[in-house]
Each structure stands twice: as C-alpha cells, then as structure tokens.
Batch of 4 targets.
Target 1
Amino acid sequence: MGQDLKRLKRIGWGVRAVFALGIAASLAGNVLHAADNVISQAISAWSPVALLLAVELISRIPSRRGALSAVRLGATAVIAGIAAWVSYWHMVGVATRYGEADSSAYLLPFSVDGLIVVASISLVEIGGRIRTRTDAAEPAPVVESAPAAAEVTASEAPAAPVAVADSTPVPAVKKMPAKRVTPRPASAEKVAKAAAKLPGATVAEIAAKAGVSVSTARRHLPARRVTDASPSAPVPAETPALIAA
C-alpha cells in the first residue's frame, strides 16, 4: 500500500509538470499575439492562468456531495472552453506571423490545447486515487467497548456463593456485673474547695463557706484537720500538778 501510494504521487508530479508545460505554451502564444503593452499581455495571459488554478483546485480539494462536485466540474469545463477558444486563435495568429503554413497554423494549436485537456483530466484522476489510498492507509479509530462489556445486569451476573453457617456451638460468654461506682457527694466537693481556700479556718468557717452544716463539714474534712482546727474539740482537763502550782 505504501509503495503504491508513493508511485502515484510521483506520477502525479509528472502529470502536473506536463500540464504546466501545456499552460506555458498557451500562455506564450497569447502573450506573443497581444499588443506590446503590459495591459494587453495580462488580458491575453489570464485565460490559461485561470484554467491552471481551476484544475489545481479540483484535483487537490475533494468534493463529498454530488451536486457541488457537478457544479465545480461544470465551471471548470466552461473555463477550459474559454481558454481553449482564446488560445487557439491567438496561437493561429502567432504561427502565421512566424512563417507557418496555413494548415500547420490551424492544426498546431490543437496539440497544445489537447495536451492541456489530457493533462488536466489525468491530474484530477490521479488526485482522486491518491486520496483513496491515503484514506485507506489511515488507521481506523479504535472504539473502546470495554465499559459496555463490563456492564452486566443483576440477573445476568452469577449468584454469589452463600456462606454455610457453622453448626459448631459457640460457648456463651458470662457477663460480669458492672461495678457500681458511688458518685462523690456534692457536699464533699464543696467542703474540699472551701478548705483549700481557707487553709487556717475553723470547721465552722469552712462549713459557712461551703454552705453546709458543721457536722457535714466535719464528716468530709480529714481527721487531723478536724482535731487541730475544730473549735468544738474538747479542751484537755488541767492536771493536778498545774492546780497544785
């Protein structure tokens, strides 16, 4: 496929060179027949140039729709007919001026115009073949069908294996009763805070600060604190020795 495509491209360039040679001959005949000024020469040269451009367009740009392709080919045929008619009579005049016989002068332009027609048709044909080979050589786009194949409905999916329950009896775990924690009474916290704020106070002062009774404060205070700081602690009796003194 690759070698065939390269061969067609080489042939295409050869056909394009032949077509350019025929256009150059027609262009030279038109310019030589025109008056010796730039405007006349440009007008005479326009028809071969227009045919060259038209053939290049239809050979390089493909048409996908039949109606548009027919219109384009029809317009190119009209341009080719105009160029052939103008070029024929210009070349007849040039051949006659430069000493050709009457029959030769009238037949010579057919060789130029016929070469242009054959080369233009061949150029269009070879361009179509090159486009066909190029399209065939291009790899087709890969369509990813994995997601579609991965979609399996619940009914089509294989059923999951059902786990068989183990018949071995599981020994019962004896639950230990939760240990009941007796919350610390709020009065104890109040007495502790009041004792911390009043380190040298008596039990009555601490009870008043905590908002509890003296007996409650005495119950929650440390024993040493109650012994040392309690105003109601019994006063030791005077010893006989001190009375005798």
Target 2
Amino acid sequence: MTLPALFLGLFDDASVFPPGDLPLGEAVPAHHGHRSAWYAPAVGPFLVGAGRAGELSALRPEFPVALVLAPGTAEYRPVAGLDVTGVEVAAAELPAGLPSGLVAALELPPGELLFKQLDQLAGTRHRAKFRTGGLAAEAFPTEPELAAFLAGCAERGIPYKLTAGLHHAVRHTDPTTGFEHHGFLNVLLAAADPDRAADYLAERSGGRLADAARQLTDRQIATARRSFTAFGTCSIAEPLADLAELGLLTREKS
C-alpha cells in the first residue's frame, strides 16, 4: 500500500493517553513496529506526558518523542535519552527554558479569548493546538467552534494540530456514547479550502469526502498540511483502516 502526500506524518501516536491507556511497556514496541511498517511515513512522534518521560527513557526508545507538559508547568526540563522533537503545552504561555530550536504546540480553548491568544501566537515558530474530543460530550467543540479556530489560524498563518476524538476519517455520531465526532478527513478538506470549511466539517458522507480529497491539487494539499500538521490518536490502525475503506490508499503493483 502507498500513502498519498495528504496523510504523511499526520498521525501522532497518543496510545498511552485515554481512552487507549496502553502501558509504556507495550506502547514502545508497538511504536517501533509502526516505524518499520509500510505506513511509517504517516506516523508522527510518540506522545508522552512529561511526568513519565523518565520511565520512557529507561525503555531506550529509538524514535522521535513529543513531551506533553502538565498545566502550569513553569520551566521546561530536558530529558536524557529521549529524542524530543516537540512539546505540547496546555496553556497560552510557553514555559521558561525552552530550547530555541524546539517547536511547541500551545493548547487554546474555544471562547472569547481564542482570537487574542492566536494574535499572540502569530509570527512565532510555534503551533496552536485545539482539543476536538475527550471523555465527555462537552470536550467536543461544535462545528462553528472548530470552524472559527481553523479560520483564525488560516487568517494569521498559524499551523495547528488537533487532539482527541479524531481518529476516524468522517464526521459521525458515536453509537455508544452519542458524542458527535469530527472527522480528520473533514478537517483536511476544510484546511485545504477555508472558504468552504463549514460545509466540509458538516459533511457525513465518506464517499463525497473521498471524492473531494482525490480532486485536491498539489497546491491545495500543501496548503492543507501547512495548516493542519497532525493530530493525536490513541490508535494508528483505525485511521488507516478508514482511509483504506474509502479507497484513499493504493496498493503497489508487484
């Protein structure tokens, strides 16, 4: 199978976070497996909470890591034995001591302060981060809230990543919880064409979304991925399975 450019590096491995909660002893070899699989180009860094960084380091991982800092973290502390390629911060301000070459993703909440915080982030090397789900209904932003975030980032030229609730390609209602999940393919198309973001975020037909994805130009794909850089997912297999079902992965000829 081969991966279209639209999906390269899109899936950050959040397998140790809820709802996956995979033990590090299982998550590390699993990530090594992802790195050697045919779909490796789709896999981003391994996400781990800074409080577990020492435990991860003891397992000698041979892959890029992004540290998720606890809210209120005042100072960044480097971790020996880890190839830290990024940090994620659940606050609108960066911790002290962040190395000059390290890119942070700052998690911004929806609401009245969003655009002010985006203004502060504009022109820096850092990304915005936005939560698209969780373990309760209120953790899922509405379509207008997500569209406002995407538009705010596009207007200011700010790249962003999304986290939680986004491991399926197409917008849907979870039959067990009743939660309204956004789809990562919906978001990619919205990022490629911000003027139609509201329509793409609302679309529930996988066929229509897949057809639209196939029609994207190279320039639109570059625009989408320059904006929407990645999302955290507790499963790497599920988003790939969705793409295969939609016919967006192609089998190499022998």
Target 3
Amino acid sequence: MDDRAIYRGRAAVLADLTVRRLASAEVVSVLDEVCSERRWWLEQWAEGADFVPGLIAQDVQERMADEIGRTDPSGLWPVCLRCRSGPVHTLHIAPDLGGPDPVWVCEESGDVVAPLGALTPDA
C-alpha cells in the first residue's frame, strides 16, 4: 500500500498543530492513532487517497474536542483568530469529506482561512 497520503496528512496536521502551539505529546499521539485508523480506511478504498489528509484533520479535531473537551479552549482546534468579536469558534475542513485540496474555513463567516497545513499563528 502507498502511505504517501497518510504522510502528507500527518505532516499537514502536525504543521497546523505546531503553529498553534498544540503539538504536545498527548495530541501527537492522537494524531498517530488517527493516521493508523485512516491507513486501514485507505487500504479499503485506495482511490480515496486525495481525501485522507482532510479526513485526518477532521478526525484529530473531533478527538481533541471529545477527549479534552469542547468547553476547554485547548480542545477547540483550530480556533478562528480572524474574527475578533463574538464567541470563540473553530475552523473546519472543507469540503466536508476532506478533499481534494482541503482548506480551513471559519464556521461563522464561511471565509477560507488557509489550506490544510498552512495555518499561521495569527490566522
């Protein structure tokens, strides 16, 4: 099996976690678990390789919210830093199935913030 899609997804998500200072050992372990699970999925549907990086991002986002908590700010990843007013809210991956070419989108405004793997410390 070709693991390049898994590695691309892992690298992109790790870059986004790192730039937001959330790449703790606990969170990287979550990322590695998600990658392992998505490897099985990719074995079942090799044609879905373009979707894997976005799906990994979505899976990590959901796990962080479930395991850390949706009320704990560190469980909300990635938080939208563009919207300066209103409640704290997250970005989500679009398109919904994770690809191809996944991007982070503000859940409030609907604006594209960055491609997966290209978040910045202030956006």
Target 4
Amino acid sequence: MKILFITDNFPPETNAPATRTYEHCKEWVKEGADVTVITCVPNFPQGKVYEGYKNRLYQKEHIDGIEVIRVWSYITANEGFAKRVLDYMSFAFMAFWVGLFQKADVIVATSPQFFTTWAAVGISKIRRKPWIFELRDLWPESIRTVGAMKQSRVLDWLEKVELWLYRDADRVVAVTEAFKENLIGRGINAEKIDVVTNGANLELYVAREKDKTLLKSLGLGGKFIVGYIGTHGMAHNLDFIVTALAKVDDIDIHFLFVGGGAMKQTIVEIAERLALKNVTFLDPVRKEEVPRYLSIVDVSLAPLKKSDTFKTVIPSKIFEASAMRKPTLLGVEGQAQEIIEKYSAGICFRPEDEADFLKKLGRLKNDKTLYETCQSGCEKLARDFDRKILAEKMLGIITKVGK
C-alpha cells in the first residue's frame, strides 16, 4: 500500500496536526505501508524557518521510515488572515505539482485549513486515484467563529467549496463524532464518514516524577502549576484566562504557558499591564521535550472560546495530559466536556465565565480526593485513546479505499 499524505504541519513542528500525522504514519510504516508525506519547511507558529532548514523549492528527508518531501511555500506567522491564506495556497499549489509525480494507491489530505485538500483533489483527478479528507477542524466555520475574517461573502463561498470537497472525497475521516454529525446535518452521506479521534502516544507520554531540575530553573518549586502547552491561537481564549489570573488569590498557584501563536504577544502584554506575578511565559519546545514540561504541571489547562462551533472540538492536549496522569481544567462545552466527565479525568468550567473558572481551579487545588479521582480517570481515558490503536484503525480505512 503506497500512501501519499499531504499536510502543511509535520515534525519538528509540535502542534496537534503535526504530531497526529507523524505518529500515524510511523505506525503505518511499521505495518508495511509505503508512506510519502508532502509538507512545507517547518515554521509554525512563528512563521520563521526552523534552524537546519531552508525554504527551498524541493528537498527530501527520511524520518522513521517515512519519506518526507518538503516544498517551497510563502511563509508567514500564524496571524493575519490574508497572509495565512497566501501561505496555505502557495503550499497547496506546490504540493499538487510535486504530488503528481509520486506513486500512490491512495491520497490523504488533512485540515484544519482545507487548501491541502485542493491539492489532493487535483492529483486524484489526474492520476485517477482515490483520496481521503481527514477532517480536523470545521474550516472555514472556525474562521468565522473567531472573527479572523469579516467578509461573509468570501466565507460563504469557501463553505460551498468545503461541502463540495466532502462530497468529492472517497472517504472523510473526522476526528470527532460531532464533526460527523455536523456533516450529516449538512447533507453529506453518513456512510462515507468514519471517525478516528485524537489520542496520545503512550510510549512518549508516561507518568513520571516532576523534573526537579526544570522546576528549579523556572523558580517554581513548591508551586501548584497550571500549565498550557500548545498553540496560543485566536480560538483558545487565553486573553480571558490571563485577565482572570489577577483574581487568583492563592499565592501557591502559578500558571505556565509554553508555546507561541497569534495571541502570544497579546496575552504577554495583558500580563504586563496587570503586573501579574503568578504567570510564566515560555517559547515553544520540541515535541520530545513536552513530557518534561508536562511532568512539572499539576493541572493541564484546555480552554476555547464560547461558541457552538467549538462544542464539536476535542483538544488533543487532554489525551497527552491524561497519559501523564495530569487532570484537565477544561473550558470547552460539548463533546470534550462529555469525555472529561465520562472518565472523571478533570473538571470543567463554563467558557468565558470567570467566577466558574476560579471556583473550579480552587476545587482542583484544594480537594485532594477529587484530584486523586481525576488522576485515576486519566489512566482510563489514556488507555481508551491509545494513538497506536487509533493509527491501526485509520490504516484499515485507508487500505479499503486504496484497494
């Protein structure tokens, strides 16, 4: 089975799409698949080419048995809608032309932005090969939700294209049941939609003692640390969180933000304006380093803006935190809340409700029985969302389509 996978995020980038794609592809190679990934030069989220790479027209490398082809694209930071669209479209254009010359039994293209799927459609039509739409985000609906673009006519047109892509795909693999329900409600045939959720690499994310060296270097020894590790994007509602920190009275509670993104500078400026002493901001770290930072965290924070759109989203960080027995303080309604409550793997606060956020934070800090119950729930959740098992499930879907 020759699989051609198109994605604009791949390691050494550490965001959720990059991690999911890499871990899936690595397992598929172990199962005997021949996997080629077309991606761009690593630059997310700052829009700066990573050390050791150059934004060349074409370059190839091999990572854990995966053939990785990196193509040129217009590179910009993860901020500003127009520039990002140019970034996405330039990658799709290059991925299409390079993809035409790759041998493949099936083509897979992944969102959140769906211009990657445009490349897959073009290759599919010309090479007469089936293609799969991996649906990680309801884009452009999420663009409308966060207010990144106000030209409704353009968004209306993009949503028509989105629906056409779902219909054209030989298979749609959604990462949540809610995404599947959304598509069915918009007229997409339920029989062509599968669900393969996100999960955690249980070999990388393992419960461990707190890294004392890291704690000492950050000056956080003895603190109850609430950690947010990941993209600081417009959807994540971090400005609300940082503003609320001014009302956290417990001096033992400290917040740790690790990562970058469109909202990073904004939340840093909010913290400076409020003269906050209970927060630390760090730059993004390599994927292999994330478990080390998670080890010093007592609670993993996972917020999103209050919106019906985000009721369909399941933040991938809840799986990684659970694998390390770190309860999640979740500010998301809908399916993510259902999972956390089903497993008792954390506690949920109402999005954008400051009083409820502070109340739930206090409960996790002060109720030791609740905290230990959440830790036990984390273990059960992690076992049920083992990335290796999920990768095998998706490979089965790809194999059926590619026959």
